[in-house]
Records
---
Amino acid sequence: MAFPETKGTGTPAGPTTAEVAGQERVLAANTAGRGWRWQSLGRWEVALVGFVIATILYGAAESHYFLSGANFFDFGLNIGPIALMALPLTFIVMTGEIDLSVASTLGLACSLLGYLFEHGWPLPLAIVTVLLMGVVTGTFNGILVTRLGLPSLAVTIGTLTLYRGIAEIILGSSSVTGFPNAYDTVGTSPIPHTQFTWTLGIFLVLAIVFGVVLHATPLGRSMVAIGLNKETAFFSGIRVKRIKLLLYTLSGLICAAAGVLWTFQYATSRYDAGTGLELDVVTVVLFGGISIFGGRGTIVGVIMAVCVLGGIQSALTLINVSAQAQEVVTGCLLIVSVVLPNSGATIGQLRARWARRSAVP
């Protein structure tokens, strides 16, 4: 059900008496269930700590190279772009939406950067242009979802193909190399005095910012409220459409930045950069405890999910497991991330229903 906003202000029109009563019932239900939600979330984060420890033990047992600084650098190279794209997707999923075009936006950014560099653009100007392109693609997704009311799953499946097709048109099957050494060091040298890749370091800094926004600001509380019940959030004065549009724009910007870092990390520009990474990004977000239905999760959980997925991939690579087999593992983690966090909710609902039936004489 859609509700009109007051013209020119973006604030909701006044609800009827029946709507207010419905809103109060929803708020009461949310308040009653909030304690369980946080309790369940805590249990899942404890489970993630166990997954992280198990991953480290498994990797160390399989290869003595697993705990080396050089392997940690390789870990950052592999998981860094995925982790970076997972941050804005966390916010989007928190509101009950999805963005499957993240990897295609990365590929489009990579392709456009190579094209501009090949045609003589100064790299700083080319990078700014690519970031603006990311803003445009993200805003386009947001407009289709918020202003036209289209389902985000269908929209971003469409733009997943659209952006990848545009990337291929721009660059074709060729690749662009020869970037200046000052930029190529993003992929060959860690941050000074550490074993962190530049992409992973940027992710950790942004993760702190995203965590503060989500857990300690009105915007974060608004995202949670939208995910729990968007109609209730609307009648509470939250600008639902505006926030969702902002989040899609942010997603496009960060995915474009990930495309720039990807280009310099591998010292090449290709239209197929990041193909298939959307599955890994979604897995990180959901395995990190962000509810696919919205309204629940933490950035800490997402960070631990990055460690688990990256650690498993690193360990399997060291023992020469094929990429296809690793995709099977990623798919299993995705299923686990949907089934386990929500199994507690199902059990709780069944217990409540049984208690109500038992209370009836």
Note: The chain has one domain: 38-346.
---
Amino acid sequence: MGHEMSTPSDEHIPVLAQTLLEQISLPANAVMVDATVGYGGHSLLFGRNLGAQATILGLDVDEECVEKAGKNLSGLTCKVVLVRENFAKMEQIIAENGLKNADFVLADLGFCSGQMSNVERGLSFQKNMPLDMRLDSRLKTTAADIINRMAEKDLADLIFRFGQDRASRRIARFIVHHRKTAPITMTEQLAAIVCRALGQPAMGRRSKIHPATRTFQALRIAVNNELENIETFLEAAPRVLAPNGKIAVISFHSLEDKLVKENFKKNQLSGIYKILTKRPLTATDDEISQNPRARSAKLRIAQKT
């Protein structure tokens, strides 16, 4: 698959980087799992302090991310192992690479601005793109498949559950009505249908959020099985962490944050974890002004007992 290399403006600025460095100090020979390595921003920050005995295992489903992370992390002294795989398979991949337990597991559940602007992916409605939304091109089902094939009630449930949009029934009805005439294949088409369903123009909006944002979020979560994968990853974490090892998760919307919060709480009640963040850590105004994506980021950290 040929990808245009993105311009530096696309580069992913690691979110809450400074906050993480203040909260987590690693031994020089640490094993770090960067479960969503992206372009390697977080790994680079931690990797600079790691010695030759240390290992960073970076996972990402996106081929382009793995490639870029490889270039960005090539100067580190520690061993860097990059695998194109979903973090739901973290446990298996740690074993396959003969690694002992991890001292630090990090997952940044956001995705790179480079992925957002990649026209092939169809994650954004700022540009007109094919309705794809697969972060892993090996997945079979695209957003267009769901939009054009799913029964109206199921579509409404999906938009309600994953997009938390109270107008989900109406949106689903408009989508189904529209696809009877012609399939919906492009992001702009879908965004326009959602705007019509909500009786809101895309421009001149009262709220900061585009009317189609929730529907797009719902589709992206469904296409990539995001919530199931997060649950699998969170369940595996205590088994891969070394005693006193830490897990840090950065989430970007309440569905993700709720899974992390409940998992940490459950593990704390079972005596497996000690939660280190009483409430989630968030970005400073300064960071948000430099990186607007950080606005909705929430960081939770727990330590294995």
Note: The longest helix spans residues 254-269.
---
Amino acid sequence: MAAVMRGGTASQARPRPKAAAPRVPASKRAPRAPAYRPAKLHAASHVGLNPRVALMVAGGVFAVGLGVALFTGSRPQAVSHFAGMSLANRFAALGFKTRAVQVQGAPAMAQRDILNAAALYKGQPILGIDLEALRQRIEAVGWVKQAKVIRLLPDTLVISVQPRTLLAVWQDHGVDHVVDVDGKVIPEADAGQFADLPLVVGDGASQAAGAILPLLRQRPPLMAQLEALVRVDGRRWDLRLKDGGIIQLPAEGADSALIQLDQLEQKARVIELGFERIDLRDPDEVAVRPKAVKPDAPGTIIPRP
């Protein structure tokens, strides 16, 4: 008999068990997603290049990267940025070291002084050379007016020099010096090897010679007779000739006085015939003392044309 509950409905029958799902063969099952596990931080093992190969590759990349900065030169800060001497030494081991130094534009007698001032040595790490400091050392050499240093990787340095133009031998208190067109003394030059240069004598002669010598070079016959230019009182010149004659130039207007001398030579051939003294200091007249006249005799006055 079915049970009856007061105030309610009849009790429900027990639920029937569900039918079991058919089994799927393992070969046809969908693959399960792997369970999530946090990755561990650790050093990679057995990854990368051989250390020697890595260094060579880095060297190639480094050389290319520095090519623009280092190829043309005055960039010492580039070396300090990209590498110190320790790195330069590493690259030297790969062939970046000094094997040749070329000096261009300098006279032969100046090259030894330039190389001594450069203070470079064979095998020196080429990337470790401070090109600006090197340029300054070279420009401190008296022969050199201006210098440029170029680094040609991997192993060559080129020193390009603009030499000073030699002007004269300056005799100062009995000591001879070679000077350039600006009056700068070239201490490395041996004055005894420059007999072809004109001789200038006296205080201030080295600085003033650059103005008078071009005027004299325009007069080859006079230059051929010239023994020395003597600076007088720091203001004017006496031209001493090889035969003992003296031409006295004024403090102002030396070019005009030399023109008057040209005209006198055309008329009287005074330089060809010889004289003791020609005084061109007076702008209104020329005083000529012939050789035949004794030193205490009065000079002959020739009015200026």
Note: Residues 51-71 form the longest helix (21 residues).
